[in-house]
Amino acid sequence: MNFSMLHPADQIVMIMNRLYSYQMTTTSGGNLSIMDDEGVMWISPSGVDKGNLTAADIMKVLPDGTIIGPHRPSSEYPFHLAIYRARPDLRAVLHAHPPALVAFSLIRRIPDTNLIPNCRALCPRVSMAKYAVPGSEQLGEYIAEEFKKDYDIVMLENHGVVIGSDDLFSAFMSFETLDYTARIEINAHAISPDKPPRLLSEKHLDIYREKNGELTMDRFVPSTHTSEELAARREMCTLIHRAYENNLFTSGQGAFSRRLSDGSMLITPHDKDRKYLEPEDLVLIRGGLAEFGKSPSHSLLLHQKIYAHDPEIGSVILAEPPSIMSFAVTDVPFDARLIPESYIMLKNVRKFPFGSSFLQPGLVAQEMTIKEPVCIIENDCVIACGTTLLNAFDRLEVLEYSARAVVDTIQLGHAIVPISDKEIHDIEVAFHL
């Protein structure tokens, strides 16, 4: 889908629906705007259910200040105008207050964007604006001052966050990524209250950028598409959409691959919206060549190494879910001896140092087998393998849900009682592990 070809009103409705569906805003909260090439600002309305917006609800503010539409524009529209005046290069503004970012605004601190490379890439610089009454000219002045300093992301004291960008989808990607990072940091403090999360240095980030650039590969044009390949494309997209809906992927992050019987493979493309990924967007890799006109995930080499090492593995997923990633940014080990399902599906969840997935993919691949199918890469991602697409996806879900259970248990103030060695032995016998 070409988001940029949608009408501004349709873009606002689509992104607002995503914000509301994923509990990043409330019925009355949040506002979005787009400044078009004619100087008309399109903005979400005030007092209208954000969960049921239509294009007809979106308001227009003309360059001379005339307001057109069936409602009142958002009460925050003064600060949207102030941002556009301060930064004529921006064409979209997003404001919302999801719980994790509100938590940081309440302590008046910015989430640490050096936890994972993806956040640093999409949210390189974040500022904080002083508190003022919502909808006031004063608030607009405070926010505009930060944007004048070339910040594109501004946290608001006791309020939420404002993001400006070239287009609304880019603003949403930055917002979504910052929210994920905030959740990871909150979870990390829960499981490791006495030691702050591990941060990436500039050297780490430079190495990541260098090794994760555009892949240089020869291309080919497939002459045919087998029924196996077409079925795999369809199933992959179904599960990728589920991964996004279940907060396992973000719109631009998460890699999913599937081995085909002829030795070729399908993999997610780089930098395509996971929510609307279509079967034709997936990249076919055959004989070391990539499908013409498409850019495969930067983690392609790791997927290839894993498949080469264990022929039983039929699918590989890389992701950054916010609960299990709290273990990736701390020294706390993840013990899957929680409930029978978690041990059966995950076995021993190992950790590898940051950089292992792209500096030493062969070494990671040697450790990944169908009997030891899950691992954590520090400050980077988790990897889940399976015999099938559904099997790998199931392991990823179990991994994140189990990590969430651990975080919740810690909130109860009691130590976790793991399944005993004798009980583990009984499980291994019963399920032939």
List the helices and strands and how they pair.
Layout: H1 8-21, E1 31-35, E2 41-43, E3 45-46, E4 59-61, E5 67-68, E6 72-73, H2 77-86, E7 92-96, H3 99-106, H4 117-122, E8 126-129, H5 137-148, E9 153-156, E10 160-165, H6 168-191, H7 202-211, E11 219-220, H8 227-245, E12 255-259, E13 265-267, E14 283-286, E15 289-291, H9 300-309, E16 315-319, H10 325-328, H11 340-346, E17 350-352, H12 356-359, H13 361-367, E18 374-377, E19 381-386, H14 389-411, H15 421-430
Parallel strand pairs: 8-9, 11-15, 17-18
Antiparallel strand pairs: 1-2, 1-7, 2-4, 3-6, 4-5, 7-10, 9-10, 12-13, 12-16, 13-14, 14-15, 16-19, 18-19
What do these coordinates show?
This protein is an alpha+beta fold. The chain folds into two domains: 3-191, Class II aldolase/adducin N-terminal domain (L-fuculose-1-phosphate Aldolase, 3-Layer(aba) Sandwich), CATH 3.40.225; 217-430, Class II aldolase/adducin N-terminal domain (L-fuculose-1-phosphate Aldolase). It has helices at 8-21, 77-86, 99-106, 117-122, 137-148, 168-191, 202-211, 227-245, 300-309, 325-328, 340-346, 356-359, 361-367, 389-411, 421-430, and strands spanning 31-35, 41-43, 45-46, 59-61, 67-68, 72-73, 92-96, 126-129, 153-156, 160-165, 219-220, 255-259, 265-267, 283-286, 289-291, 315-319, 350-352, 374-377, 381-386. It has a nine-stranded mixed sheet, sandwiched between helices. It has an eight-stranded mixed sheet with strand order 5-4-2-1-7-10-9-8, with helices on both faces. The chain has a two-stranded antiparallel sheet with strand order 3-6. A hairpin with a 3-residue loop joins strand 9 (153-156) and strand 10 (160-165). The model has no long low-confidence stretch (mean pLDDT 95).
